[in-house]
Design a protein that fits this description.
254 residues, Rossmann fold, 10 helices, 7 strands, 49% helix
């Protein structure tokens, strides 16, 4: 099936690589006008080249999502270029391995919260008015299973991703009635540059595959499939929900 997002304007933050890039490619194939948003400009341009889209249906924007001025500019540029904003995917995030809580540097805590929580807040803050002005839209926030089960190797990351889940619920309670559906996904292990970096070694990554119920971690395209459904009109009655997508790993752990 194609054309599920035909003519819709979409912003995907974190579109320069990994899950964000997969979402950009999937959205473009489904007819969306895609704004690849990332502060990694080289990666964003590479994503754009992979879309093979016409200039009026895809573009990049350099943005630090923790800066309100830059986020407001991102939304303005998207609406100016595409004429509308229907979809926002909040995929940009950072993961920094840290020691146990009492030894976590305050700078790393603030940096993580500014990007992973404040950044999602700011993107929603400026995207929602653009969506309501056009009759509504869909926001998909990307959290993590780390925000549900917690992880020991990064206290700020786990807490920030829990914050994204709660932000989703609160925002949905306030704006669903105005036509903006707001949902969240919580991926488990996914084969991305970020995950390979966080496992710190090829052996550790291989071990995650071996211990997984499916014998492998997820693929970025599999995550993009769920995001596509939530962004599309097929999920017209879905708002305020968080979807675990981890190949059964959480179920197996219980």
């Amino acid at each position: 099936m194609t054309g599920r997002l035909e003519g819709k304007g979409a912003i995907i933050t974190g579109g320069a690589s990994g899950i964000g890039r997969a979402i950009c490619r999937r959205f473009s194939r489904e007819g969306a006008r895609v704004m690849v948003a990332d502060r990694n400009t080289a990666g964003a341009e590479e994503t754009l080249s992979l879309l093979e889209a016409a200039p009026d249906t895809a573009a990049t924007v350099d943005v630090n999502i923790s800066d309100a001025f830059q986020v407001e500019r991102m939304v303005h540029e998207t609406v100016t270029r595409f004429g509308r904003l229907d979809i926002l995917v909040n995929g940009a995030a950072i993961l920094i391995r840290t020691p146990p809580l009492v030894d976590v540097d305050e700078v790393l805590w603030d940096l993580t919260m500014d990007t992973n929580v404040k950044g999602v807040f700011l993107c929603c803050k400026y995207a929602i008015p653009a969506m309501t002005a056009n009759g509504g839209g869909s926001i998909v926030n990307i959290s993590s299973m780390s925000g549900i089960r917690g992880i020991g190797y990064s206290v700020p990351y786990a807490v920030s991703k829990a914050g994204v889940i709660h932000l989703t619920k609160v925002a949905a309670s306030q704006y669903t009635s105005e036509g903006v559906r707001i949902n969240c996904i919580a991926p488990g292990g996914v084969d991305t540059p970020q995950m390979r970096g966080s496992t710190a070694s090829a052996e550790a990554f291989s071990e995650r595959n071996e211990t997984h119920p499916m014998g492998r971690v997820g693929d970025a395209d599999e995550i993009a499939n769920l995001v596509l459904w939530l962004a599309s009109d097929e999920a017209s009655y879905v708002s305020g929900s968080t979807y675990i997508i981890d190949g059964g790993a959480w179920a197996a752990a219980n």
